Amino acid sequence: MTSKSPLLTLNSGVQIPAIGLGVFQSSPEQTVTAVESAIAQGYRLIDTAAAFVILTELPLAERVTTTDLTIHYLRPITEGRLLAKAKIVRGGRRIFVVNVEVTNAGRLVATAVTSYLKLQQNAQNSQ
Questions:
Q1: pLDDT band at residue 95 under the 50/70/90 scheme
Q2: What is the domain count for the chain?
Q3: CA dihedral sign, ordered 60, 95, 120, 67
Q4: 28: domain range?
Q5: I want to staple 126 with a disulfide (CB 3.0 to 4.6 A). Which of 12, 79, 113, 121 is the partner?
Q6: CATH number of the CATH domain containing 24
Q7: Which residues, including other chains, have CB under 8 Å from residue 45's CB and lie 6 or more apart?
């Protein structure tokens, strides 16, 4: 049985999955394979959650880049699904600061603060 993840619509009209990689009810072997595959493909829960919350505030043509990411791991995770909730702490003309909390079964397992720089578009790229 396949179930589709609910979608969120960004201000730009782009739709993204509301739920990321989960390994709940996976065997240890399946979990290792899923996590290794996700890391190999560049999947990062905290950075992705933070980027998605910023994208809700930007027009489609604008871009940002991560300038700083500090993560505090509070407890180990051995099973279950992780949920990352991101909130913009400050959204300026050039800099965004985002707070991310990661929970597992309702327990806080990690916190992060990340900064993003809005990239300047040059005249050639904006045409």
A1: very high
A2: 1
A3: negative
A4: 7-118
A5: 121
A6: 3.10.129.10
A7: 20, 21, 82, 84, 102
